[in-house]
Design brief:
The protein folds into two domains: about 80 residues, Sandwich (Immunoglobulin-like), CATH 2.60.40; about 90 residues, Tetratricopeptide repeat domain (Serine Threonine Protein Phosphatase 5, Tetratricopeptide repeat). It has about 250 residues and is of the alpha+beta class. It has a four-stranded antiparallel β-sheet with strand order 3-2-5-6, with no helix packed on it.
Length: about 250
């Protein structure tokens, strides 16, 4: 029994000694912008994966921050602030006097004109979910919103045109049906202005022209596909549609 007590006492003593030997230090610094002005409210995160520790601080009105009780060693630094690009770096913390960090944030220039939005993938997936659920009007509105925010993404016209065609097939009113087909034709035409080699859009344009009763325009669309690559599967499909027109 005494031996067991001695072992327990020794283990506790070692743990205390280990804890005492774990030296700590502090990290201080300032965050400024490119003009040398203090950045207030910037969030500074210090991360040490070795000891699984994360410490966060926020700059004051003079751009200053401070963190205490950090284990000695190398820490990753992440600085973020609204309207600024994030900053990543690292700093060494020692038990002595650590140097004051002087960090500079660069202004976020914002998205480039015509650049795709960061959420484009999620937006398209949400629009497709609406389309598959049969909510055509909501899907059209979603794709139009994507198009307004991503002018360079001309392929959205292909999805919009398809939705207009689907609605036209379900429409019983003749005038409304023709209007929807006209919107589909416009969407296909806009796409082809930027992507003349898109054979899928050209074939679907031809099919839409057929549905709208525009036989000559449909025949031209199919002929263009055949002329571009006579031996392609797309040309064979276009040829079949041409036969339907000539019957």
């Amino acid at each position: 029994m005494r031996r067991l007590q001695f072992i327990v006492f020794a283990a506790v003593t070692l743990a205390l000694a280990s804890s005492a030997s774990a030296q700590t230090g502090r990290m201080t610094g300032t965050i400024k912008d490119g003009d040398g002005k203090a950045v207030k409210g910037a969030i500074v995160r210090a991360i040490n994966d070795v000891v699984a520790a994360r410490v966060t601080s926020t700059t004051d009105d003079k751009g200053r921050f401070a963190m205490i009780g950090l284990r000695t060693g190398t820490w990753k630094i992440v600085v973020e602030a609204p309207d600024y690009l994030p900053l990543n770096g690292q700093a060494d913390v020692s038990s002595g006097v650590s140097p004051t960090l002087a960090l500079t944030l660069q202004r976020d220039p914002g998205p480039m004109p015509g650049a795709l939005s960061k959420s484009i993938g999620e937006d398209v997936a949400a629009a497709e979910t609406l389309r598959k659920a049969g909510r055509s009007d909501d899907a059209i509105a979603a794709y139009q919103s994507i198009q307004s925010k991503n002018a360079r993404l001309t392929s959205v016209n292909l999805m919009l045109a398809g939705l207009y065609r689907e609605k036209a097939q379900q429409e019983k009113d003749g005038a409304a049906r023709q209007a929807l087909l006209g919107r589909a034709i416009t969407a296909y035409s806009d796409l082809l202005k930027n992507d003349e080699t898109n054979t899928r859009a050209r074939i679907e344009l031809g099919v839409t022209q057929m549905s709208a009763g525009n036989a000559d325009a449909a025949a031209k669309a199919f002929q263009d596909v055949i002329s571009a690559n006579p031996k392609s599967p797309a040309a064979a499909e276009a040829a079949l549609h041409l036969q339907e027109i000539r019957k």
